[in-house]
Specification:
With about 290 residues, this protein is α/β, with parallel strands linked by helices. The protein has five helices and 24 strands. The chain has a six-stranded parallel beta sheet with strand order 6-8-11-16-19-22, with no helix packed on it. It has a six-stranded parallel beta sheet with strand order 7-9-14-17-20-23, with no helix packed on it. A five-stranded mixed beta sheet has the order 1-2-3-5-4. The longest helix has 23 residues.
Length: about 290
């Protein structure tokens, strides 16, 4: 496009010279023609600035060089069609309170936050093997509505704190909504506990990690499965409430193979407005437990 633009400029220069040589046109006519041509040139220059680039994965995007202000659309995060397709804007300064990838040339690709995002757009694998806690942490930090699509293994605590660094748009609406696709899960008790999870589930495997609510304004989870690590019964919890959490809504979710579904220490409280509806507890020692209050 830049080559075409430069060629066009050369042509315009020739046309403007011809216009200047025309004796039959008034000065006003010549001015009108020149202004019209300059307007077209300006629009073409704008077109160059909004060129959209495409990359199959984030790794390929990181390795390439793009002009500042360019838009880059990836077909996936780790692989094409892995659910991580997203849009980025290239800038030269690391942004504050925004998720970005650092390019090999020192520029930054800032993720465009849409109305609903996925964990995969922040780097989650969703394969029940790799640790997705860092990606989930970033998604919760920078995005208000998240669609969970796969099986996510969580090996470290995820802080859900609305008073943390948020984008300007989310600072006035720090609520977090995580929406899954189903709650069907079956456990077979034998020599070891075996989980049978269909591929279209939204499942969080609590493998040493949990969702830690610390002064959170509001957190919603719906149609999700929270399950302890297979073969390691009743050693993990899904939610840990310590500092007062003002509102926690959990609806149509399943908790399986856990010691606690929701675990509150003696300081962990929630308001009467919180909603617990349609919950299933399978092989859990406690569904919802208060320390010190039974």
């Amino acid at each position: 496009i830049e080559d075409l633009y430069n060629a066009y400029l050369n042509t315009i220069a020739s046309i403007l010279a011809m216009v200047g040589d025309l004796v039959d046109l008034t000065t006003s006519d010549k001015t009108s023609i020149v202004n019209a041509i300059n307007s077209i040139v300006s629009e073409l220059a704008t077109l160059i600035d909004i060129v959209i680039y495409h990359a199959p994965t984030v790794a390929v995007m990181i390795a390439n060089d793009y002009p500042l202000g360019a838009t880059v659309i990836t077909q996936g995060y780790h692989a094409i069609n892995d659910g991580g397709s997203a849009e980025y804007t290239i800038v030269d300064t690391a942004p504050v309170n925004a998720y970005y990838e650092t390019l090999a040339n020192g520029k930054f690709a800032v993720l465009t936050i849409k109305s609903t995002m996925t964990f995969e757009q922040f780097g989650a694998y969703g394969d029940n093997v790799n640790d997705d806690a860092p990606a989930i942490q970033n998604a919760i930090k920078y995005c208000g509505n998240i669609r969970a699509n796969n099986v996510y293994r969580i090996k470290s605590a995820i802080e859900m704190n609305s008073t943390g660094d948020l984008t300007p748009e989310l600072a006035t609406d720090p609520d977090c909504h995580v929406m899954g696709k189903g709650k069907n899960v079956s456990l077979t008790v034998s020599a070891s506990t075996v989980a049978d999870i269909s591929e279209d589930e939204a499942t969080f495997v609590m493998d040493g990690g949990y969702f830690h609510l610390r002064g959170t304004s509001r957190v919603d989870f719906s149609n999700c499965v929270f399950m302890g690590q297979t073969g390691n019964t009743k050693v993990e919890s899904a939610f840990e409430l310590t500092d007062p959490a003002r509102k926690l809504n959990i609806t149509d979710c399943t908790f399986a193979n856990l010691k606690y579904g929701v675990h509150c220490d003696e300081h962990g409280r929630w308001s009467g407005e919180s909603i617990y509806s349609g919950l299933y507890f399978i092989l859990c020692e406690y569904g919802i437990k208060y320390d010190g209050q039974g």
